[in-house]
Design goal:
Blueprint (H helix, E strand, L loop, with lengths): L5 E9 L3 E4 H8 L5 H6 L3 E4 L7 H16 L8 E5 L10 H8 L2 H4 L5 E4 L5 H16 L3 E9 L9 H4 L4 E10 L6 E9 L7 E2 L23 E2 L1 H23 L8 E4 L4 H10 L11 H4 L6 H11 L8 E8 L3 E8 L1
Helix pairs in contact: 3-4, 8-9
Length: 335
Amino acid sequence: MNLRSLRLAHSAVCWPARVVTADELDARLGLPAGWTAEKTGVLRRHFIESGRDTNATLGATAVRRVLDAAGLDFNAVDLLINASGSIQQPIPCTAALTQRELGESAASGGVPCLDLNATCLSFPLALEFAGAWLLARGGGRVLIVSSEIASQGVDWDDPNSACLFGDGAAAFLLEHAPDATGGLLASRFETYSEGAEHCEVRGGAQAHPPWTYTKARHRDFVFKMDGPAVHRLAAKRLPGLVERCLADAGLSIEDLAAVVPHQAGITPMRLIERRLGLAPGKMIFTLADHGNLIAASIPTALHLARERGLVQPGDRVLLLGTAAGYSQGAVVWQL
């Protein structure tokens, strides 16, 4: 696949005001001093203030910043995709709630909205969807926003998992540019359901409806992850995915300006960095300051890499990650 019509116009991020440090979590959870920083690699992260922030308010703030940078009104956009693993409510989609947060003009303009949930891989999958959608229509603009509130759904009885996460949003404005030299050069997404139980929230839907919740069953309704099992699967399968995706693009790992991974945790990220044989500085790390932002991790890391001058227009980058399922994905994008 070669979607060379896809151009990145602008991007922006939004984090809640509240900052929670690793030391605070150590004290809150009765952990030895330094445990969270050492085990997760996360030194600080942002958490929402309950009753103030929602998926839609965080997402709308990121969208406004993108539109302001582009000098556009929301109604100049042809599609809004919310690409997130967490949702504000089951119905309607979070994208529609985000549109409502943007104000009366946006809410009355009729811009179509939809949600795409592939947990941590939602953004790269939405990127491919947006590229194909723009190509099929022969023009237009798509806004992708990944808005995540992880802090309300983690299991604080499992600090190995819970202490990894943060809250935040990232928004990307994409345009159809048929004369552009860049675009999506290759992508691959794979699911190996042998790992379906490694990352899950059991409760809240058909299998365990919300009205069956009891305090004794609380852990069925929060995020559960078998980190070592996920890491073993990723170590086994992810390098092959990268090889296949790069071959599709006709590139080698040395042709990439950067690898922008899902910020899954310091140990698995370092492991993949070594397995891929990446040169120092080629992998983008944002974990220490923001934690694992679920689907917002990859777009946040890419935005910050662009903002800090680590990647430039025309550079080829690899977006890479794993997700619940067990799923894995890779996208080669020439910016």
